[in-house]
Amino acid sequence: MDMSTTEANRDADVFDRSLLLRHCMEDLALAHNLLELYLTDLTPRAIALHAALSAGDRAALQQVAHAIRGSSLTVGALGLAALTQDIESACRQGELPGVAGVWPEWERTLTATRDAMQRMQGEPHPD
Amino acid sequence: MKEEKTKADIVVVNDDATQLMLWNQLLRIGGFTVHAFSSATAALEAIQSKVKPSLIVTDLHMPGLDGWRFCRLLRSPDYADFNRLPVLVISATFAGEDARQITAELGANAFLSSPFLPSELLGTAEQLLAGQTPALTTRVLIVEDEDVVSTMLVRAFTAHGYAASAVRTASEALHRCRRESQELIILDYHLPDMPGDLLLDEIVRSSPHSAVIMMTGDPRAELALDWMRRGARAYVHKPFNPEYLIALGEKARREIAMLHIETRLEERTRDLREKEERYRTLFENVTDALLVYSLQLDGSLGRCLEVNDVACRMLGYPREELLRLPPLDIFVAQNAAETAHLTGQLLDGAALVFERQLTAKDGRSIPAEIHARMFTIEGHVAVIALIRDCTERHQAEADRRRLAEQAHQVQKLESLGLVAGGIAHDFNNILLTILGNVELALNDLAPLAPARACLLEVDKAARRAAELSMNMLIYSGRANFAPEPLTLEALVAEMRVPLTAAVPHGLTLQVEPEAQPPTLAADSTLVRQIVTNLVNNAAEAIGGGEGTITLRTGQMDCDADFLASTWLAEPLPPGRYAFLEVADNGSGMDRATLARIFDPFFTTRFTGRGLGLAAVLGAVRIHHGAIHVTSAPGLGTTFRILLPIAPAAVAAATPAPAAVWSGHGTVLLVDDEDAVRDLGQRMLEKLGFRALVAADGTAATRLLQDHRDEIAVVILDLTMPDMDGEEVFDALQKIKPGVPILMCSGFDEQSVTCNQAGPGYAGFLPKPYQQAALRAKLRAVLEPGAKPGAA
Hints:
- The complex is a heterodimer of chains A (127) and B (791).
- Chain A is mainly alpha-helical.
- Chain A contains six helices and no strands.
- In chain A, helix 1 (5-14) crosses helix 6.
- In chain B, strand 4 (87-91), helix 4 (96-106) and strand 5 (110-113) form a beta-alpha-beta unit.
- The longest helix of chain B has 54 residues, at 391-444.
- The A-B interface holds A 19, 22-25, 27, 30, 33-34, 37-38, 40-41, 43-45, 47-48, 50-55, 57, 60, 63-64, 66-67, 69-71, 73-75, 99 and B 15-19, 21-22, 25-26, 29, 59, 61, 92-93, 114-115, 117-118, 297, 347-349, 373-381.
């Protein structure tokens, strides 16, 4: 499946597929498996992040942001990694980010990341 | 393709599934046998039983047993078999100098910052398995002004893989320590610019993570002791074998690392314990029930994670049983759409508040207000529900509604009282005219005159009208109340004949009096009215057929529960009460009818006027009594009137039979109603008095001035247009102080006497009055020694 230039540019902002492949030693099957696992975990983690933001629970927010950042860095989801890094840093400095300030951008990035990853998953691979 | 070989067993630990899969796969590609665990607890169990790893790769931030504690355990005597097992720590949180510090503190062998390239992971693993310590070299600083010694030590440490360097002075040493942290410092006691012990103090203060070993040629033991007290980890006497010093250094570093990690662990443990205690205290000390449930991905509730004592007490379950119960019905919505709606709101962070009936273990139904919201606990989504028992609140609301209803009833009563009083005032003046004139006409008519029968019908109709008027006054609480000692038995016996005659054909009136009746302080007129109205009501309830009305009197002990089930004007104390009971075997009433029977003008019968039972309630209220009603459709109705028994000191007085009395002298009659005035004048003249009449206060004062010595008594209407009764009363008393004045009104006596209790007030004459009542009052004024009732 061909990907348009616009889509490719937009994907690159949030998801570095070459980084994922480097992490996987260019093993495309492994990369696809990682993406599947990552996306499966991402939904409940996003729910938990929103809940922590809504509840103003800093400890929970820092915890869930850290978890998302770790796996996002692993799969090259650099957009979400950067956003969760901001949340983690703010929490560590005693600040409490709110839903209104965080969630809209987070949700956009989440959707874009998911779309980009699903596009990659849709591509043919050796398996 | 990858080389098929199995180099070693590696245990990897990470709670994040994505990273765990990547580590696992990369190491497998590298030819290792990998054992992957999502928690350190599971990994610990495995390595103690079936898995024999050559390397452990672990994450730091994990729920439950975290990486810090995991490494601490691997280096503890309890896990001696694993003390020398290489450990690689991977974390996205630390890098650079922090990573060095963490690795040293953990007793780990290597550290990788995440994310990493596969070659970094595989290369580090290979090195660790080969017994090498990659990348993280240990810094050692030798502070010695003798070049021979320092050169020898730098060579020896370097040969052991240390990054060794040397300085000659204390100031150089402090400068170096400030620039980069040193794991180990070998410090000579004799330095050119500062004694070694002072430098030791400074290093211990500014670089607490550095292990310091002192060297000296001075053999004094007290020096060594002093250095150890100041914070040195060890000391050596010159000359010494460099290998010995290196061994000492490694030991000192391990001790420092252990000490440091111990402190960090203690702090973390203390923090956790304090936090747990704080939340546990809060959890157990809130006055409402708290339950925590896990939330599944599909939005349904999972298992119960936590409950507090209040929840156990409220629902009647032991804690363990409550934890095992499936999600309580309280969260089960009516349908799938409602479930989705509730879950959606929870996931949006909304705090839900709703009410449900909960069922306790013993089957009790508990009205509860539930506050629920979602939160995260150790990365998991859960729902916390705060449950408040609303039984008391609902009771309070019901009480408030009842009080408001009572207040409304009182208000209604007052309004009706005003209206009834006003009507009765005008009505009674008319009735007084009718009844008085009928009486006078009958006196003048020959016994067999044809008009006599007509006049008797007029008299009968007027008396019924007077009874209606009286019922209105009684219900409104404005009836005249003149308590006197009496017994219900005597009163009922007296009424037996007229009542029996009055009940319709086909009905039987049975009277069952009390043998030893108690004495009451009651108004006989009002009690008669109660009996009459109840018997009339019973007769109407039976209708046209045959039936029995039973009239009982007696006394009974009433407890608080029984009194609470009665119609009360006010709370009555438990105790012994006299009762008057009227029972019928008529149609009975349903609950809706029963609830309204005392409302004025409420009637279920075509012929009823709806005032009889309302008047009964008013009369009982005046007596501070209560009414107990039992009724059911088809089973008849029983009214039991409870009246307070008079104190023993109240002696029963039997009225003497009435005797004919006539007076003499002049009476001044003041009333603005022409008919009343005219009738009153004629009655007075019949009684033997000379009557002077006045239509208003001005005329009255003038007449009293003109006939001051003749007028013996004044009969004064309370309500007149120009001057009211009070003003006229005062004016008359000024003209002839002490002249007896009988106040006359359609209202009750209390309304009249409140302001006329002073000298001159001779009593109250309620309208409509008849000749007998007028005679009795005048006799009481003019012959104060006469017995009551002996008119």
